[in-house]
Amino acid sequence: MKKGVFITFEGAEGSGKSTQIRNAASFFRHQKRQVVLLREPGGTRISEAIRSVLLDRGNRGMSHVTELLLYLSARAQIVHEKILPALRSGKVVICDRFEDSTLAYQGYGRGIPLPLIREVSRLVRGTLRPDLTFVLDIDIKKGLSRGGRHDRIEREAFSFHQKVRRGFLALARKEPRRVIVVDSGQPLPEVSRRVLEKLQNVFGE
Q1: Are 6 and 83 in contact (CB under 8 A)?
Q2: Cα dihedral 64, 70, 74, 79 in deg (nearest 10)
Q3: Vertex 112 angle, CA 110 and 116, to 5°
């Protein structure tokens, strides 16, 4: 049985993750691999319920600590219920956001100390780490205009989203072998080419 593969896509709002996730899934399906597509927060009944609380615009008074713990709770469930079982059975798991988003949004964005987030995150995910992470980087104004400002996080101040973007780039600099930055402000065919080229280099048969 082939070893399971865990790939994550990260980036600020409107960075185009959904399109590239579909491309990555097609890449692995052409290799006759079973692919599981997930999103964070969400992916399970419990995690989707938490997602609705996190993104509800009516919850503007949510404390930063509450936000962090809710994201981690949703992750704990999806890791236990979906990600680890799929990887153990040799499947390819592609997830829209994972721990890097927590570090970028709640760490760099909200100002919660990164060592604290990392420590609690180890309780949530154990030794699980993505094999490869794509950060789709885009100018904040362009990204927000693409995706709109509908949910509680999207409607945060422009300065918050700038901090998040800087956070993703800082995380990528610290782990250049795992985290690949792709300029998603380029024409879509070029973004797709960059992603598929990296997948071929790492996982091509």
Answers
A1: yes
A2: 70
A3: 150
Separation of alpha carbons 6 and 22, rounded Å:
15
Tell me what pLDDT residue 40 has. Answer: 98
Measured between alpha carbons, how far is 140 from 188 in angstroms, rounded to an integer?
Answer: 17
Inform me whether the pLDDT recorded for 149 exceeds 80.
no
Beginning with the edge strand found earlier in the chain, give each strand of the sheet holding 92-96 in spatial order.
Answer: 35-39, 92-96, 5-10, 132-137, 179-183
Give the confidence band of 66 by pLDDT, cuts at 50, 70, 90. Answer: very high
Q: What per-residue confidence (pLDDT) applies to 144?
A: 83
Contacts of 145 (CB under 8 A, 6+ apart): 14
| Contact present, 116 and 127 (Cβ < 8 Å) | no
What homologous superfamily does CATH list for 5-203?
P-loop containing nucleotide triphosphate hydrolases (3.40.50.300)
